[in-house]
Amino acid sequence: MAFDEGTAERLRDIFEVIPFSSEKKMFGSLVFMVHGHMTCGVINDQLMVRIGKDQYQGVLKKPFVKEMDFTGKALTGFVYVEPDGFESDEGLAYWTNLSVEYVLTLPAK
Fold first, then answer.
1. What is the pTM of this model?
2. What's 14's domain CATH number?
3. Structural domains of the chain, count
4. Average pLDDT over residues 67-89
C-alpha cells in the first residue's frame, strides 16, 4: 500500500508543533505518534484516526467516516475518513485534534 504525499505533508505541518510527536512508516502507511501512541495517519488517500472506544459510535455517524477494517475486521476506536472529510485545513485540524486529545489521556509509553 501507499500513502498520499500531499496529505502526509499537511499532517507533518500539524505535528511539527506538537510536543513528543513523531512519524513512522507502518504497513505501507504513514502514522503520527504522540508519547509513543499512534494518533492518526494516512493510508492511500484516507485518513486513519484514533478516537478511542467511547467516541467510536458517535464518530461513525459523521459524513465521510467508516470503520477501520485494515485486517478485514473493524478495529474499534479507529476510523477511516474519506478525503472529502478532511479536504479543508479546518477539517484536517478537527480530526487531528480529536485524535491527539484522546491519545493524551493515555499513559506515555
1. 0.93
2. 3.90.1150.30
3. 1
4. 92
Report pLDDT digits (tens) over 25-49. Answer: 987 899 999 999 999 999 999 999 9
C-alpha to C-alpha distance for 2 and 43, rounded to whole angstroms:
6
Sign, CA torsion 93/99/105/109: negative
pLDDT at 1: 58
CA R_g for the chain? 13
* Residue 59 host element (H or E): helix 53-60
Residue 86, in any domain of the structure: yes
Closest CA to 40 of 76, 92, 2, 91: 92
Please provide the DSSP assignment of 10-59 as one string.
Answer: HHHHHHTTSTTEEEEEETTEEEEEETTEEEEEEEBTEEEEE--HHHHHHH
Confidence band, pLDDT 50/70/90 cuts, at residue 85: very high
